[in-house]
Amino acid sequence: MIQLRIPLLLINFKNYPEVLGDGSVKLSKIAESVAKNLNVEIIIAPPIPSLALITKSVSIPVFAQHVDSDKMGSTTGAIVPEVIKSIGCAGSLINHSEKRIPTLKIQEIVNRFKKLEMYSMVCARTPDEVALFASYAPDFIAIEPPELIGSGIAVSKARPEVITESIKAVMKVNKNVRVICGAGIVNKDDVDAALRLGSLGVLVASGIVKSPNWEEKIKELAEPLTRYKI
Q: So where are the chain's domains?
């Protein structure tokens, strides 16, 4: 199991048209270049059909955007943890606001990831959800108020209390769980504000993918990580 450094930047490609075809490879290689040049941890989460190609194209950690709890074997169409591990993925987002799953399934997948020695990053909408999911002991919890996702209004500025309350919730339940934040992160000030509040990284999607200059935007958002090495 590779060791992830914190703080970190996770880029969720989602299924935006900008990353169709060779777009995912291009963005992944740019992210890899910035990660090496700045000596920071950048994780990428490309569209599911691109995972095998991306893991062979770059050396930085690759996460799936979603996994199912289905078992190996006769589970046509399911995104099975063992399969994404076999192609080189280091972990996955779980329960993103755009792909919610039942609570018991979250716990099941987290436990399965532990056995597979893969990283689990569970997404939560509120500090109360953070407290619940922390009891499952995932590696990371990403707090993302859904109303701010893709809004361009950063959670770290518009609702900083969501971050601080989430961190407090984790400290009460399981101090080993690491909290990062997302939703509306679009510039380095947003990242800096999140890190000052105690977030151990940021989760970004449209703020990077929709940028006209991927390299410059990734550099901008990754630069604050160099000042908060832990």
A: 8-227
Cβ–Cβ under 8 Å, residues 176 and 182: no
pLDDT of res. 145 = 82
DSSP run (H or E) holding 208: helix 206-209
What's the mean pLDDT when you consider all of the chain?
94
Which class is 8-227 in CATH? alpha beta
Q: Which is the catalytic residue, given 32, 41, 66, 96? A: 96
Question: Does the reported pTM lie above 0.90?
Answer: yes
169-208: per-residue pLDDT in tens?
999 999 999 999 988 888 999 999 999 999 999 999 999 9
The single residue of 41, 129, 144, 220 carrying the catalytic annotation is 144
Taking alpha carbons only, the member of 204, 210, 205, 130 closest to residue 163 is 130
User: Does 223 qualify as catalytic in the annotation?
Assistant: no
Can you name the residues that pair with 121 across neighbouring β-strands? 93, 140
Q: How many helices (H) and strands (E) does the chain have?
A: 10, 8
Average pLDDT over residues 5-13: 97
Q: Are 42 and 223 in contact (CB under 8 A)?
A: no
Question: Is 66 known to be catalytic?
Answer: no
